[in-house]
TrEMBL record:
Pfam families documented for this protein: FAD_binding_3
Domain FAD-binding: 17-371
InterPro entries from the UniProt entry: FAD-bd (IPR002938), FAD/NAD-bd_sf (IPR036188)
Protein's name in the database: FAD/NAD(P)-binding domain-containing protein
UniProt entry keywords in alphabetical sequence: FAD, Flavoprotein, Monooxygenase, Oxidoreductase
Lineage: Eukaryota, Fungi, Dikarya, Basidiomycota, Agaricomycotina
Domain of life of the source: Eukaryota
Length: 407
């Protein structure tokens, strides 16, 4: 039997929502539920809000990510923290020649302003209260009890603790979600691509020529066989990513000794970027100590669905539809999923809508949206990493931007 909150009486005393994962998706959901007084708790594996670096910058799209922030009442705060100058885009070929330059968007009502991931997390956390997020809670497994009104969820954490009595469980815990097994046994397939990433701090002082090479925002470099993207983050840090078509466990099988960071990166450059501009090589080799990462990338294919139904549990963001960075939509989808899920839960809380019906409708919509993006990622990966000429790739970007401004 599915039950609506309104039909149960005083909703805040009865319904408890567990959100597993305090990434952009889970926290956006929390910030929207908060002013609606719909009770929730976020369980996040990080020990605290500052316990690890949060990665690079993200462009927040007007029609999805910004809409979610608006629903949470956070657009004014977002505008204070967004970086419109970072929307500048340079496309270079592997020799370093500029093939397309697109200037920054207008400060007035920008379509896709950038924000550092840590700033975005800070913005969302500042809108919550102390008890809303429980830190250091890595979900090990979740199970549903049988009981009155359809049962509740028990959460078992890696630290040996247990929480119980949650009526609704939301998995917002990313690509390797521990909630997803309640709905599906299918893991996200490997894309065929690893990303080698580096980070250089204090770039203006230490490497001004690299700062000039990258520009104020994103600088993408293509050869037809590999793709490099360097991004200037808010704190004068440049993060650089090399996307290479290799086997899944290439970090281990490459024969590169990654324990000696500088030597490892020099060997990597010799293998994948030996005929690239010196600036590109330096963006890797001069990486701050300890900031090198090598990651295989995973993505669900178009038309992916959850295998099983289980009343009261759903997923959002990468937990629902992990995607590669090649459509630039992962975080926006996660935030927009949060928006759509909050609207669905609002209907349950204030109109007495049946939980299962609204969740089923929500899942149909988010999986359809993600399916189109997954297809775009696959297409772009094929275009950028395997086989197209630099001229063909430049033509694709020209079409995307409606013609170069000054190429
Ligand atoms: C190199 C790279 C670059 C990218 N660049 C872009 C970009 O430019 N634009 C874009 O839109 N997207 C980009 N993406 C994709 C984007 O980062 C993700 O799609 C987005 O972060 C998904 O948000 P999420 O909240 O669903 O999941 P995540 O951001 O993965 O957040 C999940 C949260 O859950 C926590 N968690 C995980 N497991 C558990 C557990 N067992 N228990 C409790 N908590 C847990 C994690 O610590 C984390 O805080 C990029 C991805 C990569 C790898």
């Amino acid at each position: 039997m599915t039950v609506g909150w309104a039909s149960l009486g005083e909703r805040t005393d009865i319904q408890r929502i567990a959100i597993v994962g305090g990434g952009p998706g889970g926290l956006t959901l929390a910030t929207i539920l908060k002013p609606l007084r719909i009770p929730f708790t976020v369980f996040e594996l990080d020990a605290s809000r500052n316990s690890r670096g949060q990665g690079g910058m993200l462009d927040i799209h007007k029609e999805t990510g910004q809409l979610a922030l608006q629903k949470a009442g956070l657009m004014d705060e977002f505008k204070k923290r967004m970086r419109v100058d970072a929307t500048e885009f340079l496309l270079r070929d592997n020799t370093g020649a500029v093939r397309l330059h697109h200037g920054a968007e207008s400060e007035e009502d920008p379509e896709r302003p950038e924000i550092d991931r840590a700033e975005l997390r800070g913005l969302l956390l500042d809108a919550l209260e102390g008890d809303d997020v429980k830190w250091g809670k890595k979900l090990a497994s979740a199970a549903k009890t049988t009981g009155e009104a359809g049962g509740t969820f028990d959460l078992h954490f890696a630290d040996g603790t247990k929480e119980d009595g949650y009526n609704i469980l939301v998995g917002a815990d990313g690509t390797w979600s521990r909630v997803r097994p309640l709905r599906s046994d299918v893991p996200p397939p490997y894309t065929g691509m690893n990303i080698v990433s580096t980070s250089i701090s204090d770039i203006d002082e230490r490497y001004p020529h690299l700062a000039a090479f990258v520009g104020n925002g994103s600088c993408m470099m293509v050869s037809g066989k590999a793709l490099v993207i360097a991004q200037r983050n808010g704190n004068a840090t440049v993060k650089t990513y090399s996307c290479i078509p290799v086997e899944e466990n290439w970090k281990e099988t490459s024969g590169i000794d990654w324990t000696d960071q500088k030597k490892g990166l020099t060997d990597f450059i010799d293998r994948f970027h030996s005929d690239w501009a010196d600036e590109v090589k330096q963006l890797f080799v001069e990486c701050d100590e300890g900031e090198l990462a090598v990651r295989p990338i995973y993505m669900f294919p178009a038309n992916h669905k959850f295998e099983r139904k289980l009343s009261g549990v759903t997923l959002l963001g990468d937990a629902a539809h992990a995607i590669s960075p090649f459509a630039g939509t992962g975080v926006n989808n996660a935030m927009y999923d949060a928006f759509e899920l909050a609207v669905a839960l609002e209907k349950v809380a204030f109109e007495g809508a049946p939980v299962d019906e609204v969740l089923e409708d929500y899942e149909k919509r988010i999986l359809k949206r993600a399916s189109a993006d997954s297809e775009e990622c696959r297409h772009n990966q094929e275009m950028w990493l395997t086989g197209k000429s630099v001229d063909e790739i430049v033509a694709q970007f020209n079409a995307m931007f409606g013609g170069a401004e000054d190429s």
